[in-house]
Amino acid sequence: MSVGKLDAIIFGATGYTGQIVVEDAVDIFGDFKWGIAGRNESKLKDVLVKVGKRTQRDLNHIPIILADVNDPKSIEAMAQKCKVILNCCGPYRLYGEVVVKACIDAGTHHVDVSAEPQYISGMQLKYNDLAQEKGSYVILACAFESIPAELGVQYAEKNFPGTVNSVELYWENIFNFQDKSSKALAHTGTWESGLYAMQHAKEMMSIQKKLNCEKLPNLSPKLKLRPFVHQTEGLRSYFVPFPLTDRVVVQRSQRLAYVHEKKRPIQFEMYIGMKSFLMAFLLQVVMVLGIIFAHIGFVRKIFLKYPHIFSAGLVTQEGPLEANRKVLEFRYTLKAKGWTTGTPESSAPNEEIVVRVSANDPGYGLTSCAVLLSAKTILREQSLMPRKGGVLPPGFAFAKTSLLEQISSHKSGLKFEVIKK
């Protein structure tokens, strides 16, 4: 690439998440040459002024690039101006592919904060071979979904004294609102992405079947999904399966590690916890009803129009207040089972370790940190990444890089700890 190119461009910089990414980039990108992009020049200038005041930095030198997903030529021109695009413009099912394609055609790398399984798997299926041919890394879901789960599995494996057979992840959230005037936890963009994912759940199954065509070994013992409300040792919550993007992404990473490196794949399942049996049961009911309603056109339109009402105030156009974002905490407890070194894998697993992954402000602060550090890792550690390009999940793409160490040492990153060994 020519010397005049930027290292990175943050696309969608005027959105709720994009503005947080721009602010964090001032610290994380350091001496990198980076710019911001979007379709409205005045709003982009306002973002730089606002972030400059908050960080007490002069950002007048930051380049502004005009690009609109409805104008593919402008997206192509943007992709040619840098080494990596940080795409913060969703919902990705509607607006993501044009950016992915432009990056691949330009040989530019791409990371995003997507959490839409149909989009993620669809891009892997459609563009992986071309991305590898062009030498472009397209790493999707570099955010709260699915960096903590991917790195949590890696951390558990690194601390396991042998071979890991399975990992079960239990998610607990802690809500502690500082400002009682609002209980919003998410912006409407997150709500829209979730509804689109539920609307196209059937399509997702079809894509997954085509994508995951590689034959895996017969693993024993099989990790069975626990479909009903249950508790697990050491945790007070009641848990139910939670079909988040994490499950799809982690399982894809494990599959690729086997296909390309002959590494035994780790079986993975994920659950979310509620304070009572009744709340956990009702959550399952709500998820089922959500999928049904998302398939009914006029109901889906009402849900999209009035997210504040149907989310009981948890989703708003303004997004969560910063004071509430900063104190919102999440906690993943991962239980890894397998065999100690020297124990035959034909026998029953004889070892379990429990690790914890936690952070504050997961939906936005951690997401911003994760996507920025992912881009930084591509810029600095390409030689440690697999296959010289491709549309890859983060767990496989960054397995041999220092991303885990970077994100564990950052103030907005993740805390990793072994709580039982």
Automatic annotation (TrEMBL):
Sorted alphabetically, the keyword list is: Membrane, Transmembrane, Transmembrane helix
Instruction: Identify the taxonomic lineage of the organism of origin.
Output: Eukaryota, Metazoa, Ecdysozoa, Arthropoda, Hexapoda
**What's the name of its gene?**
LOC101887456
Residue span(s) of domain Saccharopine dehydrogenase NADP binding? 9-139
Q: Where are the transmembrane segments?
A: 277-299
Record protein name field? Saccharopine dehydrogenase-like oxidoreductase
What protein family does this chain belong to?
A: Belongs to the saccharopine dehydrogenase family.
Name the GO cellular-component terms: lipid droplet; mitochondrion; plasma membrane
Tell me, what is an example of a GO biological process annotation in this record? glycolipid biosynthetic process
Q: Transmembrane helix: is it a keyword of this entry?
A: yes
The protein's organism comes out as Musca domestica
Q: Which domain of life is it from?
A: Eukaryota
